[in-house]
Amino acid sequence: MKKILIINGHPDKESFNFALSDAYKEGAQYSNAEVKEINIRELDFNPNLQYGYRKRTELEPDLLDAQQKIKWADHIVWVYPVWWGSLPAIAKGFVDRVFLPGFAFEHKENSVWWDELLTGKSARIICTLDQPGWYYKLIYGSPSHKAMKKLTMHFVGVKKVRITAIGPIRESKESYRAKWLKKVEKLGRANR
Predict the structure, then answer these.
(1) 63 contacts 97 by C-beta, under 8 angstroms
(2) pLDDT tens digit sequence for 156-181
(3) Which of 13, 84, 101, 181 could disulfide-pair with 23, CB 3.0 to 4.6 Å?
(4) pLDDT tens string 19-31
């Protein structure tokens, strides 16, 4: 049985991102996968990595729980909107505070290299855009995709990462959204 963790980074519970999370979850549960969720907006934590890596900031209980869920998961599904070419601030703060040395990676002494501590997992990024995905890639170079896939997931050892970019969402019709909910539900059934 595959263990899937869905991490939703949208701060608004009524957003389309929550409908996407629910659709993926429904599909995954249909396939008998075990599913856990993290809705970042519901966590009680300071998103500011106050001292960088110079000094340790104690993790709040919600972040300790998030780390346990990440360790548990075989497959991590990220759902978030792309704002200003990046994650929402609360989602970025979550990444900063959770994916720490000693948990997600470990610097090698006297070296520029590091050990990846979250190997053996896969990930799916499902993000919404206010522009077509092709435009985001061609004109802007998909900065959030690169940041999450290569600079975050690959950095910590999650090498098999797929991206589903959905856009434009703003002013989209209900039929367009319904089509995407079905596609995301199918991704959940396939555990991909």
Answers:
(1) yes
(2) 999 999 999 999 999 999 999 999 99
(3) 181
(4) 999 999 999 999 9
Looking only at the bridges linking them, the beta strands covering 105-107 and 75-81 are: unpaired
Mean per-residue pLDDT of the chain: 96
Task: Give me the pLDDT at residue 96, please.
Answer: 97
Question: Would you kindly state where each structural domain of the chain is located, as residue ranges?
Answer: 3-189
Q: Cα-Cα-Cα-Cα dihedral of 108, 105, 190, 42, to 10°?
A: -170
Coil, strand or helix: which one is 120?
coil
Query: pTM for the complete prediction?
Result: 0.96
H helix or E strand, kind and range, residue 145 = helix 143-148
Question: Which CATH superfamily, name and number, covers 3-189?
Answer: Flavodoxin domain (3.40.50.360)
Q: How far apart are CA 117 and CA 136, in angstroms?
A: 31
Q: What residue has token string 């300790």?
A: 64
Report in angstroms the alpha-carbon separations of 140 from 53, 95, 192: 30, 23, 26
Of 120, 48, 138, 38, residue with least CA distance to 90: 48
Tokens matching residue 160 = 């098999």
Residue 76, SS3 per DSSP: strand
What is the pLDDT, as a whole number, of residue 160?
98
Instruction: Find, among 129, 158, 180, the residue nearest to 27 by Cα.
Output: 180
Residue 80, beta-bridge partner list:
127
3-state secondary structure of 187: helix
Q: What is the pLDDT of residues 79-113, one digit of tens each?
A: 999 999 999 999 999 999 999 999 999 999 999 99
